[in-house]
Design a protein that fits this description.
With 554 residues, the chain is mainly alpha-helical. Among the domains are: 102 residues, no CATH class; 68 residues. It is 70% helix and 6% strand. It contains 29 helices and six strands. The protein has a four-stranded antiparallel sheet. A two-stranded parallel sheet has the order 5-6. A hairpin with a 2-residue loop joins strand 1 and strand 2. Helix 14 crosses helix 15. The two termini are 29 Å apart. The relative contact order is 0.03.
């Protein structure tokens, strides 16, 4: 099949994303010729679809990757709609290689043949009937002919209109809202590049404030607000480079925004704006951060989260790193040790800069400060590594066992196994069995699951199955054990797979049927052909009314 005949979109993927009912309706729309393709581009198809109204529909992507948008109510409420299915199928009918000959291409060629006066009249006539086009042309005119005051006032109105939410903006409306804001930001960028960078600075700062405020009223699941704020911050930096504002005043403004902003729009501003700030601006930035840092008390031990510590720490670390002052960078980190991870980060930093003794001292201090809390496994593990390397193996083992007794885990056992050898297994098993007997839970998993997992890791499958039967384990752990021990315990694995097959078929639905079929296929490699054939025949007989499942059996 050549490129011209190959379909653009995978039909199975279309069915999966749309659902069977929506796909069927879209297929009917396509058959009835309700799609008019306006533009065929390599990654985008634009069309009009005749429904209860005339809808503008865009389908993007290629192959199994397909998305897009439609201005119909169904898309706003549910997402991928029948109109998008119909457009994708119409594009498939044209073939992957087709791009020319669409309506917009014909219109474009027609317009090229017109003289300027005729085009102007056509555009003005359209603007009279289309408020959005009128506003766009009026804005372009103001930017070209208007004075600074007029341009600023006009764009402020555009920003306020674009960023306004008028209530909550749900997921399906968020894309349209973001598109309008992006157009406003592009207009500000044009102002910055047209010799009015000073005005652009005021405008983009206003836009940032409005986007951040609007974010509270938007379902931003796709991160549109983050993307818009990134674009706005880039425009702000570009405008600063052109306008050349007072570096000290700029430092004060940037510092205020970085420290007190609800978003990370100006995070790392000192580094990003270094060329604009110059030495005078950077010195002011550093002074502001140092004064604010000095006003904060040192923290050792559990404390409430404070963004001021995090942000000021990053700012001052930038300057200390710029000076090459390792001692200052350590002191900055040592001022806020309110969590075990702060101690770990400090110790890792010391080690990375060749200060092994200080790294060990800091990590031991962290263990002591938080010894009454739930063990922090990364901190304990790092401490054990440093203690062992320092020739203090017994202390390393003691720290690991203390943590394992409080909160057993696969990771802690792995380090104990490395230090103590296989002797670690007997002690770990004894501790887990005692915990099971006393009914003491552990975080993230069941004690019996962890016990079976440790035995599996040692390839002690007899003991693992015995523990699973004695103590009871989760279904997931049973499946992991069955897969790991298929070669040595095929009967046990088959029994479990058969149980899962019945459960999956009983629950119904294609995903469950597919999982059951995969388990049946695994069983075929664990026993003779006749036994497997009899098993499959029995399944066919007992579940013959479940056609989709029977079809998967082949």
């Amino acid at each position: 099949m050549n490129a011209k005949d190959r379909p653009r979109f995978d039909v199975d993927a279309l069915q999966a994303v749309a659902g069977s009912k929506v796909f069927a309706r879209g297929e009917a729309y396509h058959r009835e010729g309700k799609v008019e393709i306006l533009a065929l581009e390599p990654g985008r198809v634009l069309a009009r679809v005749v429904g209860s109204e005339l809808y503008r529909t865009v389908v993007r992507g290629h192959g199994a990757h397909v998305d897009g948008e439609c201005n119909c109510p169904a898309f706003e409420d549910w997402g991928f709609c029948k109109h998008m299915v119909a457009v994708a199928l119409a594009a498939n009918e044209r073939g992957e290689g087709a791009q020319a000959g669409d309506a917009l291409t014909r219109i474009r060629n027609y317009l090229k043949a017109k003289n300027v006066d005729a085009l102007v009249e056509m555009l003005v006539d359209c603007a009279e009937r289309d408020p959005a086009l009128f506003d766009r042309l009026e804005l372009a005119t103001a930017m070209t002919d208007g004075d600074d005051k007029t341009v600023e006032a006009r764009l402020l109105a555009v920003i306020d209109s674009a960023t306004g939410t008028e209530g909550y903006v749900d997921y399906h409306e968020a894309g349209g809202w973001a598109g309008g804001v992006e157009e406003a930001l592009n207009a500000i960028r044009e102002v910055a590049r047209s010799g009015r960078a000073g005005i652009a600075l005021k405008l983009v700062e206003h836009a940032i404030d409005e986007i951040e405020e609007a974010a509270e009223s938007i379902d931003d699941s796709d991160g549109q607000c983050t993307t818009l704020l990134h674009q706005a911050s880039e425009i702000h930096l570009e405008a600063c480079r052109t306008a050349g504002p007072d570096p000290v005043g700029l430092a004060e403004e940037l510092f205020e925004r970085e420290l007190n902003g609800d978003f990370d729009t100006f995070s790392g501003a000192a580094a990003r704006y270094a060329d604009v700030l110059g030495e005078a601006g950077l010195a002011e930035y550093r002074r502001l951060a140092a004064d604010a840092w000095a006003a904060l008390p040192a923290r050792v031990g559990r404390s409430e989260y404070s963004g001021d510590y995090v942000r000021l720490k990053d700012i001052l670390d930038f300057f200390a790193d710029r000076d090459g002052d390792i001692a200052a960078r350590i002191d900055i980190r040592a001022k806020d040790l309110s969590t075990p991870r702060d101690y770990l980060a400090l110790a890792q930093f010391c080690l990375a800069h060749g200060r092994k003794e200080e790294a060990l001292r800091r990590v031991e201090e962290g263990l002591w400060v938080f010894e009454d809390e739930q063990p922090d496994e990364p901190l304990v593990g790092f401490a054990a590594e440093l203690l062992a390397e320092a020739g203090r193996k017994e202390e390393a083992e003691a720290q690991l066992w203390r943590a394992f007794e409080k909160s057993p885990s696969q990771g802690l056992y792995g380090q104990l196994r490395k230090l103590c050898g296989k002797e670690a297994l007997d002690r770990a098993v004894a501790q887990l069995e005692l915990r099971i007997k006393e009914g003491k839970p552990i975080r993230w998993t069941m004690p019996a699951d962890l016990l079976v997992s440790l035995l599996m890791g040692e390839e002690m499958f007899d003991a693992a199955w015995a523990a699973a039967r004695k103590y009871g384990v989760s279904l997931r752990q049973k499946e992991l054990l069955a897969r790991a021990s298929e070669a040595t315990h095929p009967v046990a694995a088959i029994e479990l797979y058969a149980e899962r097959v019945e459960e999956r078929v009983g629950s119904g639905g294609n995903p469950a049927y597919e999982e059951a079929a995969r388990l049946i296929a695994r069983m075929s490699g664990l026993r003779g052909e006749q036994e497997q054939a009899a098993y499959v025949a029995d399944l066919r007989e007992r579940h013959r009314r479940k056609r989709n499942f029977i079809k998967l059996l082949g």
